[in-house]
Amino acid sequence: MSRRPSVAEQFHEGTKYREDQSFPPAPDLEAQPSPYKDFHCERPIDLVPDLPFERFPLGPAPYQEPRDAALLPPLVGRLSRVLFHTYGVTGVQEVPGGHHLFRAAPSAGALYPAELYVVPGPDSGLEEGLYDYAVHRHQLVPVFEGPFFDEVARASFSTPAFEAADALILLTGVFRRSSWRYHDRAYRRILLDCGHVLGNLSLAARAEGWRVAPTPAFEDGALSRLLFLDEREEGLLVVAPLVPESAVDAGGALLGPVRRSPATSGVVPVGESLLHAIHRSSRIERDEPVYAPEAPEWPPEEEQECQPPVPLGPTHPGLGGSFSETVIQRRSTRAFTGETVPREALARILDHGHRAASPGPVRLLQAPEQLAVHLIVLRVPGLTPGVYRYLPDTHEVLLVRSGDFHREIGHCALGQGLASEAAAVVVHSADLRAAIDAYGDRAYRYLHLDAGVIGQYLNLAAVDLGVGVSGIAGFFDDSVNRLLRLPESHAILYLTTLGSPAPFSES
Question: Average pLDDT, stretch 112-135?
Fold first, then answer.
């Protein structure tokens, strides 16, 4: 008996870009949604004075009264720096009719669909409630009063991290900000963008003496009601407790078991968009069974040339420079020169991307064991041009097939020169069918969030080393599968291009 495709599989298939299909019409520029919320509040908490430098790009809010820092708990200063380095405004560019605010984390199309909320712990010294991070003013704006912390913890299955957390960061996706341009495929980009934000958050929190213990598994309905979210407009994607380093045990056991969404019928109701269908079908509710399935086994390895794995050298924990300076300097490269990138630089970028100062491969969310990492080498001295598998556990590359594939990867990336002129392209994929069998449709969130986290770690390492970098979430899916010789069940999640940046090509 044939297996009915799940909603997640239908979503992925239905949002593929194909050579024989035309792209949707250009969006109406007059209808573009705002990239941030603007709650009215007479007495927001100004966070600008707590930043570690004098000139915040936007300056303090003109109506904000000077504050006495002694009247606020120490938590506020630490939150200020964490929020800024996670998703804050790092630059301003004047554009016709206004200005564009660059953020600490990259975003597809610079649409910034993520929204950050803060829930302080009961003993934090801040009034209990839900606060919005007003990125355009660098403020905390009270939205609702009340004991939200315990309710969020219960709806997040009270994993060990909540017992010691000083505060919670709630990360949502505002669908219209991205779907305005990318339609249903926007859900992929929203998840990747939220992964970028979460990658920054994990490193920014560590600089302030916290560990992030994020969970993308929670009771969606309960938290949407608690936060008064309109689920047609905005979806909660991650709950991230900030846990003091001193409270983390030697094993670092902060996360609970992996949880799955219930099996779905695989039917998308008539009239429902694929974006809303996948978000709905991947919900977890209290009355549905949840458990920790084993990670599915990988399918047979791709056809490989008869060569042993190639070690990339010693590992290099952390960034060479300051995380703060790297985040502030970060911009996405818009063009490469077509020149080479040293093998040592590529090795360090891959290492940081998949370890990020950890002794072993990144295990930040729920699905890293599901991710396969491919490397298309185009212009890296010391490595034969071709398609490789990167093995994070051993920091090695395995040649799948040799050849010059710059034209093929350029075509796969919708003809973008970023891919064809890159020195290397990192591709993350996953066996979508196997992941869904293990986690339900929730797997779609897990896979893309994790790919986004790792993509941001790659991004930061490249900036730190002076290598150009840009993520690509728009590609001809099936063409990438063919280039990598992957079975149809594998979903291509994300492409990260690395190369020598052309002058004045970053934005």
Answer: 96
Q: Do residues 244 and 349 both lie within one domain?
A: no
Question: What backbone torsions phi and psi does residue 353 show, to the nearest 5 degrees?
Answer: -60, -35
Tokens at residue 98, please? Answer: 């206004």
Token digits for 384? 């034969």
Same domain (yes/no): 103, 198: yes
**What are the respective helix, strand and coil percentages of the chain, to the nearest 5?**
35, 20, 45
Residue 471 CA to residue 452 CA, distance in Å, equals: 9
Alpha carbons 427 and 446: distance in angstroms, whole number: 17
C-alpha radius of gyration, the chain, whole number = 22
Q: How far apart are CA 5 and CA 241, in angstroms?
A: 35
Q: Are the beta carbons of 358 and 402 closer than 8 angstroms?
A: no
146-188 per-position pLDDT tens digit: 999 999 999 999 888 999 999 999 999 999 999 999 999 999 9
In single-letter form, the type of residue at position 63 comes to Y
Question: pLDDT at residue 440 above 70?
Answer: yes
Task: Kindly provide the b/e burial profile for residues 264-283, where b requires at least 16 CB atoms within 10 angstroms of the residue's own CB.
Answer: beeebeeeebbbbbbbbbbb
- Rounded Cα–Cα distance for residues 115 and 117 (Å): 7
How high is the pLDDT of residue 63?
Answer: 47
Give the Cα-Cα-Cα angle 4, 443, 259 (nearest 5 degrees).
110
Contact 17, 478 (CB under 8 A): no
- Residue with token string 């295990």: 363
Question: 314 and 233 share a domain?
Answer: no
Domain limits at 384? 310-499
pTM above 0.85, yes or no: yes
The values of phi and psi at residue 447, to 5°, are -65, -45
135 is written with which tokens? 């990125």
